Amino acid sequence: MFNATLKRIRVQRFRNLRDVDVDFRSGATWIVGANAAGKTALLESIYCLSRGRSFRGRRFGSLIERGETSARIEGWLEASLGDARISWASARGEVTRDPAQGAETKLPVRLICEWTHALVEGEPSLRRRFIDWNLMLWDRSAGGLFSRFRRVASQRNAWLRAGARGQAVWDEPYAVALSEISRLRARFFEAFAEGFRALNAEEDWFREIEACWDGVIAGQDELVSRLAEMRPADQERGFTYLGISRDDFSLRLDGNKWVGSRGQSKVLGCVLQLAAEQLVSGENGVGALWLVDDLDAELSPEWSQRVVGLLRRNGSQVFYTALPGKELLASCRTADDAVFHVEHGDLLRATG
Ligand SMILES: Nc1ncnc2c1ncn2[C@@H]1O[C@H](COP(=O)(O)OP(=O)(O)OP(=O)(O)O)[C@@H](O)[C@H]1O
């Protein structure tokens, strides 16, 4: 398996990072700085480079440095098919990426942050997004299937809004795509849950907790007749109610939904990410780069150490943020790790 590596990044006019140009190496890198120094902004820039968008919502304001009109990020990678350069730029509300597609597969990134616990205790839509994102890396045909579903859905919805006259020609392709997506998700989840079980058993943290699929798999014929039944109501609302947003999964203990503390949910969220990574990278041969923001925010030093230990075992490139003088750095950093200090948006490699 090949671990994607970001060898160099140049970040310009992105949040408080005016002009950062640094070389990185594989393994662990610690980004250390006081509050508001720009640690998360650096992680965010790496995430943008891969995914094209930030992991922080709109309430965090513009990614472009205040007073400026454009931002740019360039990354030089060691990718599975050789060295590559990818870039992201934002100007006048437009985002451009080079290559236009494929950055996410050249440099897949995984994030552990203050919202990781929400993967366990948050809305179903978060878990669906997690499953679908991993599914698309696991099975390259999945992207095409989702596009086909969206195309057919918009055609069926347009037909509903136009009065649903004539033959219901979209019902069958809609049912076929919907059923294929549910099946593919369930198939992915089966392999994923197996990996999750193995990881939990090995670590002995939450040995008894199981990941269970709460999705609905309906056959095409059944879906076609349900679409016909629901057609008058669909016509009234102007869209098809039966969609791909019904699937979910839950963590169960002795058959009941597991409810834990915020810290336990965060650790389990990390284990879910690790299980997905093992499955996906085992299939496509590319290991992700990890961004770990503020790991110890809800975790005791022991639990932080265990998460860091699991990430080290993967051999991936990992960027951790840490406040100076906190236990996380003292207890988890090793002599081989690289350390950068961030101050007012400037990055400096620590010596020694
Ligand atoms: N568009 C922007 N232009 C300029 N500065 C910005 C912009 N957006 C955010 N900032 C500022 O960038 C600074 C760095 O924020 P960041 O979240 O990266 O800090 P941090 O080092 O992760 O801090 P903490 O340890 O408190 O989480 C903050 O002062 C923030 O107000």
Structural features, described:
This is DNA replication and repair protein RecF. It is found in: Cytoplasm. InterPro entries: DNA-binding_RecF, DNA-binding_RecF_CS, P-loop_NTPase, RecF/RecN/SMC_N, RecF_2. One of its GO terms (molecular function) is single-stranded DNA binding. The strands form 4 sheets. This protein has a 6-stranded mixed β-sheet with strand order 8-13-14-4-15-16, with helices on both faces. The chain has 10 helices and 16 strands. The protein folds into 2 domains: 173 residues, 3-Layer(aba) Sandwich (Rossmann fold); 163 residues, Glutathione S-transferase Yfyf (Class Pi), Chain A, domain 2. The model has no long low-confidence stretch (mean pLDDT 94). With 352 residues, it is α/β, with parallel strands linked by helices.
Main attributes?
16 strands; DNA-binding_RecF; 352 residues; binds adenosine-5'-triphosphate; Glutathione S-transferase Yfyf (Class Pi), Chain A, domain 2; alpha/beta; 10 helices; 6-stranded mixed β-sheet; 5-stranded antiparallel β-sheet; Rossmann fold; P-loop_NTPase; single chain; 2 domains
Q: What portion of residues belong to β-strands?
A: 15-25%
Q: What is the N-to-C order of secondary-structure elements (H for helix, E for strand)?
A: EEEEHEEEHEHHHHEHEEHEEHEHEE
The CATH homologous superfamily of the largest domain corresponds to: P-loop containing nucleotide triphosphate hydrolases
Helical segment tally? 10
Distance between the termini: 31 Å
* Number of separate strands: 16
Fraction of helical residues:
40-55%
What is the top-level CATH class of the largest domain?
Alpha Beta
Reported for the largest beta sheet, the result is: 6 strands, mixed
Low-confidence stretches: none
Strand order of the largest sheet: 8-13-14-4-15-16
Rounded to an integer in angstroms, the radius of gyration calculated over CA atoms is 22 Å
Number of domains: 2
Per CATH, what is the topology of the largest domain? Rossmann fold
CATH architecture identity of the largest domain: 3-Layer(aba) Sandwich
What's the pLDDT, averaged over the residues?
A: 94
Organism: Lamprobacter modestohalophilus
Keywords: ATP-binding, Cytoplasm, DNA damage, DNA repair, DNA replication, DNA-binding, Nucleotide-binding, SOS response
Protein name: DNA replication and repair protein RecF
Family: Belongs to the RecF family.
